[in-house]
Design goal:
356 residues; Hexokinase, domain 1; Nucleotidyltransferase, domain 5; 6-stranded mixed sheet; 5-stranded mixed sheet; alpha/beta; single chain; globular
């Protein structure tokens, strides 16, 4: 796409952010999360953080020390499939530290935020893939755990929970002020979260933005998708879909090359020197980077200030020239400076900020 088209897309994104903040209906869900006004844990107190992803559980004992989050222990292991509420609670029971009165959870599943009793919690909206969560849907994750532990052990704990994109943005609080922070995931999927003020941040569910011209390949991918008409931006730019674009282009351009099975394989081709094939792969990475830049610049223009983006995702950090291309396009789409940072153990540190 030419720079004029990209500027229009970015302006459309900023306009949708403004409209969504006013409460108008847009393609962006714009899910606002309220944070605790005061720390839930006391200085010197040790608490537990759990990061629950699609297949991996990470757990850590963390101490709030002079206002700073200090990791004391860390471990991880594979998770079972959460087919039911009972399986989920049995995993929590197994890994909960009996000494911790406060637990912060980074929960990488769709949740609707709810703020009550001075802390953020999330209502499980739906399961994903094999994780059906039968019996847990439409339930408060933190509250359900609290009641389970109270019933089984007569032990009172406080649990706060938020999703992975929110926790990614929160991780930035360990180094940067809230008003400058956003979090971005650009890997298999894509999404952004941004602070509105010190105690409110929003999960944009940016994959759903639709005010842009779809490629013909993107239209074909969407037509064949189980969720037609949804996550159109993600289908255009993310690692979960880019290699499908390449396979379609092979066929369309009558290029005899074996179908690729991942965007990692696409990236390998982009780094090679295969006639026509490498150029197609390179162009797809640049197309993705330019569209990601539209949203990043759109957020900076929405905030009207220089921004820090805490980023996560192998496509962004490892893809051939990907970060460089994003930076170059952002520079053409906004006057504000944008810094991209990677924070070690961001999933743990971000969840810890829910209660500190």
């Amino acid at each position: 796409m030419n720079i004029t088209t990209l500027k229009t897309i970015s302006q459309n994104f900023t306009r949708e952010l403004i409209d969504a903040q006013k409460g108008n209906k847009t393609s962006l869900p714009f899910i606002v999360h309220q944070l605790a006004n005061h720390p839930i844990v006391k200085d010197g107190e040790t608490f537990q953080v759990l990061k629950i992803g699609g297949s991996i559980l990470q757990k850590s004992l963390v101490e709030l020390r002079d206002g700073n989050v200090v990791t004391k222990t860390f471990s991880e292991e594979h998770l079972p499939i959460f087919t039911t509420k009972d399986i989920f609670l049995s995993v929590i029971d197994k890994h909960l530290d009996p000494r911790s009165q406060v637990v912060a959870i980074n929960f990488a599943f769709p949740m609707n935020p709810i703020f009550e009793n001075g802390k953020l919690d999330g209502i499980l909206a739906r399961g994903t893939k094999e994780h059906a969560f039968v019996g847990l849907l439409n339930q408060k994750i933190g509250k359900t755990i609290e009641l389970y532990i109270k019933s089984k052990y007569d032990r009172t704990i406080r649990v706060s929970a938020a999703n992975d994109t929110i926790c990614l943005a929160l991780a930035g609080l360990t180094k940067y002020p809230a008003e400058r922070l956003s979090g971005g995931i650009v890997g298999t999927g894509m999404n952004f979260a941004v602070f509105l003020d010190k105690t409110h941040l929003v999960n944009l569910e940016a994959a759903n933005f639709n005010k842009f011209p779809q490629s013909e390949e993107g239209k074909q991918i969407d037509a064949q998708s189980i969720e037609k008409g949804l996550s159109l931006y993600e289908k255009e730019v993310s690692g979960g879909y880019l290699y499908h674009h390449l396979n379609i282009l092979f066929s369309k351009n009558h290029i005899k090359h074996p179908a690729v099975e991942s965007t990692h394989a696409l990236d390998t081709l982009a780094r090679g020197n295969i006639e026509k094939v490498s150029k197609l792969a390179q162009d797809l990475l640049e197309h993705s980077a330019s569209l990601i830049a539209c949203q990043i610049a759109g957020i900076a223009n929405f905030k009207k200030r220089d921004m820090v983006f805490v980023m996560e995702g192998s496509l962004f950090w490892i893809g051939r020239r990907y970060q460089t291309m994003v930076e170059q396009y952002v520079g053409q789409l906004t006057e504000h400076k944008v810094l991209f940072v990677e924070i070690k153990d961001c999933g743990i540190l971000g969840a810890a900020k829910l209660v500190t």
